[in-house]
Recover the amino acids of this structure.
C-alpha cells in the first residue's frame, strides 16, 4: 500500500512540532525519515499510525493490503515494548488477539514468524532472558505476524550495540525481500538510512519541515559491497552537510518545558 502524508502539521499545546509535511511513501519501498532529535519524527510516525490526530493535514492509505493481512499498519519501537511476564510466543501472539483466529491458525502464524525472525529456539523464553538483539527480533516478529501492509519503525536499532545492529540490518533486508510491505523507517543514524532505505526524507529541526528527499541509486542488495562504497560515501557527505548545522543547533537548544 501507499501512504500519502498531506500538509501535516502538529502542535502540542504551544509547541509546534511539525509544519506542513507532505510526503508519499511508495508501495513496497523503505522511506527513511531522518532529522535531529526532537524534530518530530516520532510525532509523524504516530500520526501515520493513527495514534495521534494531526492538528492540520491528513494521511491517506491507498492500494491493496497483502491477502493475509490482519492489520494494515504496525509498529516497531526502539524500546521493544514487550510484556515481561509473557513468553516470546505469547508476546507475538498478543498482536493476533483482536483478530479472532482459530487456535491452529494462530499457532501456524506464530511458528512461521518465529522462523522468519530467527527466534525458532526462543518461543518459550521470557524477555528478561534475551539479549537486546533478540528482544528486538521479538518486536519485529510481533509487528510482522499480522502481515502488515505498512510497517512503521521508530529507531528500531538505536538501543542496540553496533554489531547487533549490523546483524539486524542484514536480517531486516532478508525479511523485507520475503514479506512484501511498505516501510517508514525513522532513524537519526545516517548509516542505517543508507543501508536500508530506497529514499531518505530529511527533516529540519523543530518545527520539523521537509527539507529534501534523497534517492539512493544503489540497489539494496549491493549496499554492503565494496563497489557501492564511493557512491554511499558521497551520499553520506551530502546528507551530513544538510543536517549538520541543524543537529548542532538542536544539540545546543535549551527547552523551556
Ligand atoms: N506528548 C507530548 N507532549 C508535549 N510535547 C511533546 C510530546 N511528544 C513530543 N513532544 C515534543 O515534540 C517535539 C517532537 O518530538 P518527537 O516527535 O518525539 O521528536 P523526535 O522523534 O524527532 O525526536 C519535541 O520537542 C518533544 O519534546
Ligand atoms: Mg523519536
Amino acid at each position: 500500500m501507499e501512504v500519502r502524508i498531506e500538509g501535516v502539521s502538529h502542535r502540542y499545546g504551544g509547541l509546534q512540532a511539525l509544519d506542513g509535511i507532505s510526503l508519499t511513501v511508495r508501495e513496497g519501498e523503505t522511506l527513511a525519515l531522518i532529522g535531529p532529535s526532537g524534530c518530530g519524527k516520532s510525532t509523524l510516525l504516530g500520526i501515520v499510525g493513527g495514534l495521534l490526530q494531526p492538528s492540520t493535514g491528513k494521511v491517506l492509505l491507498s492500494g491493496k493490503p497483502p491477502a493475509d493481512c490482519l492489520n494494515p499498519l504496525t509498529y516497531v519501537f526502539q524500546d521493544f515494548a514487550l510484556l515481561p511476564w509473557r513468553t516470546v510466543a505469547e508476546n507475538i501472539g498478543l498482536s493476533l488477539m483482536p483478530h479472532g483466529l482459530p487456535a491452529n491458525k494462530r499457532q501456524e502464524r506464530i511458528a512461521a514468524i518465529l522462523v522468519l525472525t530467527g527466534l525458532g529456539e526462543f518461543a518459550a523464553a521470557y524477555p528478561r532472558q534475551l539479549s537486546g538483539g533478540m528482544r528486538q527480533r521479538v518486536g519485529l516478529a510481533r509487528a510482522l505476524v499480522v502481515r502488515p501492509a505498512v510497517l512503521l519503525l521508530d529507531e528500531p536499532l538505536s538501543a542496540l550495540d553496533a554489531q547487533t545492529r549490523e546483524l539486524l540490518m542484514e536480517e531486516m533486508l532478508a525479511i523485507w525481500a520475503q514479506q512484501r510491505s511498505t516501510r517508514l523507517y525513522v532513524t537519526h543514524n545516517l548509516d542505517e538510512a543508507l543501508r536500508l532505505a530506497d529514499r531518505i526524507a530529511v527533516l529540519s529541526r523543530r518545527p520539523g519541515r521537509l527539507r529534501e528527499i534523497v534517492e539512493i541509486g544503489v540497489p539494496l542488495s549491493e549496499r554492503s559491497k565494496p563497489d557501492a562504497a564511493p557512491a554511499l560515501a558521497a551520499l553520506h557527505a551530502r546528507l551530513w552537510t544538510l543536517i549538520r548545522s541543524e543537529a548542532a543547533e538542536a544539540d545546543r537548544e535549551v527547552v523551556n518545558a
The pocket of adenosine-5'-diphosphate (ligand 1) is lined by residues 12, 15, 17, 35, 37-43, 206 (CB under 6 Å).
